[in-house]
Every structure is written in structure tokens, then in C-alpha cells.
User: Fold these one by one.
Assistant:
Number 1:
Amino acid sequence: MSAEPEEILENVLRLMGFPVPVRREDREGEILLLIDSEEGILIGRKGKTLEALEWVIRVIIGGEASVRVDCGGYRERQKKQIEEMALRAIERVKQRGETVTLGPFLPAERRIIHQLVSRENGLKTQSEGEGWEKLVHIIPEGSPRTA
């Protein structure tokens, strides 16, 4: 790899008309690229532009590293909202014993839900749908629901 991921992202952003600095943080085997901007267009609807930027960076660097891109703290805010939603849904499933369906979510958003539910005894998750955006079912174990 000739250029660092943060340099590549800065160049892509400059070509898009956003000459903004990018900071790199290495976290738990993942490269986090932080765009120093509050431009909503760089986030996109439901973070789709960030997802696309991640894909471009992975393609350019060879797809070997896990790369996440954030802009103006969007990912952290989104993660907290999804965690709160998932925790409420987990409680509903535990109380009622019925499957709860959330979404649709992008892959990184689904991962948050799957990780939270994996810590709970007696519950499992299942994604359903085509493409990037899929529903997530939180299912009590022993439920007849299967994909």
C-alpha cells in the first residue's frame, strides 16, 4: 500500500470539493478515519455516503483492513440511538416472548444490534432482506421463526 488510508480519503474528499482534514485512529483492529467537518452531504441519508466512502477506501487499499469513516461524530450518535432502540426491543422480547422486528438497517447498524443481542441469554437475531438495507429480527430462542 503506497498511501495511507487517511491520505486517500483526503484526496477523495478534495476531488469531491471538500478539502477537509482527516484524522486516523486505530481501534481494536479497525482503522477509524475521522472527517473534520459538519457537512451533512458527507454523511448522506442514513450514513450512506460514509458507507460508500468506506467501500472506496477498502477497494483502493486492497480490502484487507477494516476501515470505518465518520464525519462530525455521526457514527457515535447513530450507535447510541441504535443501542437504545435495540435495548428497548430486547426488553419487549423478554417480556412478551414474541419476535420484534427492527429496521431496515445498513450492515454497520445491524452489527450493533447483533452484538447487543449476542450478550443476552435466550435471544438470537436474524437479518432478512436483499441488498445493503435489511431488517433485523430479535427472536426468543425456541421460537418457530426461521429464515
Number 2:
Amino acid sequence: MSQFFRLHPDNPQVRLLKQAVQLLERGGVLAVPTDSSYALVCHLDDKDAAERLRRLRGMDGKHPLTLLCRDLSELSSYARVDNRQFRLLKLATPGPYTFVLEASKEVPRRLSHPARKTIGLRVPDHHSLLALLALHDGPLLATTLIAPNESSPMNDPHHIRTRFEHELAGVLDAGACAHEPTTVLDLTPMGGGGAPLLLRAGRGALAPLGL
């Protein structure tokens, strides 16, 4: 049965977050709040945990996963970012956006797109999740929490606990969050002088990015 961590929405308790980090280090998959919807997360370097995460979502190995980073500096360690891309990222982070970029050598080959060598990355704007990332001291592998055979992301921690309590290591409850996925932008065309490509319209607005 999963552990249920009730967190203060603005000042999450460090002792509880440390317990959640321990679950990640032991190969657990957690449900965590973000600035869009809840997400499933696991340790970046744990292949078995990543496979469990995929099974929980009901998706195969071809479905891309995302790296959740605590800041733009960390994101830049896992992606090749030029000056144009960096300026756009600076406008959008932290926020409800996922960016597709060329993966750096820091990304395990099994996680990057097999043909394009790209990876999805984001810097969320959520107190509890950023605090978890800081204590974990590294990015987390993530996917939007959408139950199998459903189309909408989940945003209520109590519903998540009921649905997945025997499958998740833990659920971080910082209150209900938004109920809309991130906006996904492919920034790789910018490397050749092109414009970003909108792959999915979501919670992140395009106008503040000049798009």
C-alpha cells in the first residue's frame, strides 16, 4: 500500500519529502503534483522503476518520457541548448511547458528518441515538487498521470490514492492541482534557424513566449 504524504502547499515539510526521496532511491514510483496535473515520477537511472511507471500508464517503450528539472541550469545539462533556445527557455521556466530538445550525453540512451536523439524536459512551477527535486539532487523521470483507458490527466491526490494505492510507492498530497497537461514545444527546429513547433496545446500560454 502506498504512503500518503500530506504536505503544506506553500511550505512542504522537509521530513516528509525526505521520506519520499528514500522511496525513489529504493526504486519506487510516486504520484506528485505539478503546475499542470499530477505526474508519475521515478529515479532517472532506475530502469526497472521506469518500466513500472510505463505499466502504470499502460504505455509501451516507444512513448516518450520527460525529465523534470529543478531549474534551467540543470535542464541545460541534459540537453544541447543554443542561444535562441536558451532565451525562449528563460521566458518559459518555471512553468507548464515541456520542451523537446537534442539530448546531451548525460541522458541514458534508452530514454532519448531512438531516431532523433531528442528528449522532453521541463522545469515545473510547484513548491512541493521543486522541494522534492532539490532534496533528490537531480532530475526525475516523469509522465503525466493518466489512468489506462482514460484521456484526461488526474489532479486529485485522494482519487489517485484510491486508484493506485497498491501500485504506487507514495502519493504527495499538496492539494488538488490543475487539470490540464503541459504545452509541448519542439525547439529542435530553432537549431537550424527555424521556429518552435507546437506539438500539444496545453496549460502553458504561447503569447508570453512571443509565439
Number 3:
Amino acid sequence: MRVLSIDPAIRNTGYAVLDGDHRQAAALDYGTLSLPQKLSQSRCLLAIHEKICALIEQWQPNELAIEGIIYVQSHRTAITMGSARAASVLAAARYDLPIMEYPPSCVKLATVGRGAAGKQQVAFMMRALLRLTETPAPDAADALAIGFTHLAAADPIRSHLFRERKYI
């Protein structure tokens, strides 16, 4: 299976393309789409959408995995995060990809072993589990972890551990 995974944010969207299963996963591409502060929110959303479309065309994934909506204290932050997420979801829908979402606690549990793990722990585990030569940047590491979680959830023996996932 090939999965495109997204850690959405308006200024720093993490992305990753993983191939295989959770036992033999390979990171084909990963990184962070960083957008300047001077760029308007609408231009950021367009850039996110275009980047995700380009990744889909380049890598031809079978599915898209994305971080689920998280609780934030600021309504403004929630709206901008939701907008970035929507730009990614629309790109996947444009290419008729199945879309699965995972809450952050589920991703941390699947990759680190505890649902309250820190960003550095996630990055370290992604380096180890995917046999990377360097520790990925935080947003890219989160996207790698979302993809890894999706591959683990696809395993029929382990799928019962991922009750919080859902298709959108």
C-alpha cells in the first residue's frame, strides 16, 4: 500500500509518502511545506492544495491519511487549522482517494507507545522505525507518524487497536 499522509497547518504543513506495511515501511518522500507570514491565508490554502495535488500526481498513493481535528483553546487557530485540513482533503477528493483521519493521541500511541508523547519522541521513533538517516523536522515527523499509523491500522491483526480512526 502507498499512503500520502498530512499534518495540516496553515504555515507549515507536514507531508509524507510511505510505501509497504508497518513492518516494512519505506519513506519515499517527506517534508514540510513552509509558507511565509506575508502570504495571505487564501494564498496559503491554494499553495497547500496545489502541493498535495502535485504529490498525488507524482506518487500515485492508494489512500490519504490525515491528522484528525484536535482541541485547541483559540477559535481562530481551530478555524485556520481546519481550513488547511480542508485544502488537503479537497485535493484527495479531487483524485478520488479514500481519506482516513487519526487523532494525535492515536498516532502517538501507535508510533511511540504512549498517547502523550512529545514531538521529539515522535521524530526519534520515525527515524528508527523507518530507518531514516536523519531525524525529520517536527511537522514532517508528524506526517510520517500519521502514515505509519495508517499502515499499522491496515493490518487485520492490529486493526482493532485503531477504533478512533474514521473515513471522511
Number 4:
Amino acid sequence: MSLQSVRDFLSAHAPDLQIVQKPTSTATVAEAARAHGVEPAQIAKTLSLRLNEEVILMVMSGDAKIHNQKFKARFNAKAKLLCTEEVVELTGHPVGGVCPFGLPSPLRVYADQTLRKFDAVILAAGATNATVRIAPDRIVQLVHAEWIDVAQTPQGNGNGA
């Protein structure tokens, strides 16, 4: 059902984008990078977070993590990951297949600046072996996301440079 909801969303809003299903798991950043022959940074991971009483999605580079002080400065709250059951219930997608497309009800979506260094990223597509190659700006456009700067990369800053 989750993969189908992403297919339906893309069919309606971005019919030029194709979902790729791999015979192996792409559920983790490392697995997805290996399956697609890209660096982990080029995987766009989607985090499901509770922000006070609201649930939001945060799409960021696969090698990035939330920078707690930046997040708190931006949202006046601490980032809290949803538990597995909440992720499935609120996004309709399994952990490892979460993306901002095909959601059962609208959620606010944010895209971190760490994605901007790529012309295209690999984004999960509603299943633990399904992905879509997409330009970061296209993700933002399709789901009306907001660009923000709340991540840090292994290089120590928000943009990986």
C-alpha cells in the first residue's frame, strides 16, 4: 500500500519520475548507497519527528545528522524521533521507506541545505527496496517543503563544504 501511494502521487504530480525497485534492501543509507553506487551523502533520508504536538518530516543528506543547537534555535524545541509504530501510522510508510510523497494526510516537510550540493539524490519511495532519483529542488517543489539549515555533516558544518 505504501509503495502504491507513492506511485499514485508521482503519477499525478511527477509522471516523469520512475520508482526503482532493487532486489536487495535500500532501507538504510549504507544499503541504498551500495545498491545505487553512490556516496552515502547522496542518499536523501527522511526523518519523522515530533515537534511539540506536530509531526514533521525532515529530508537531509544521508551523511548528515541533526545539529541540536541549530534545530532548537530554528524551532524552539528539541528534535524527537517518532517510534516505529508512529512512523507507519502517521506516514503510511515503513521505516526505511519513508518519503514525503503519498502520505495519508499532509505533514509539514523541511529539506535541509545538505541536499543542495547534489543535482540529484536517491530518495526512498514507500518500501524498503524502492527509491526514486530526484533533484532536491524538485522534492521541495512537489511537497511545498521549506529549505532550512539544521544539520551537520561529518565535515562539521551544514553544507558539507
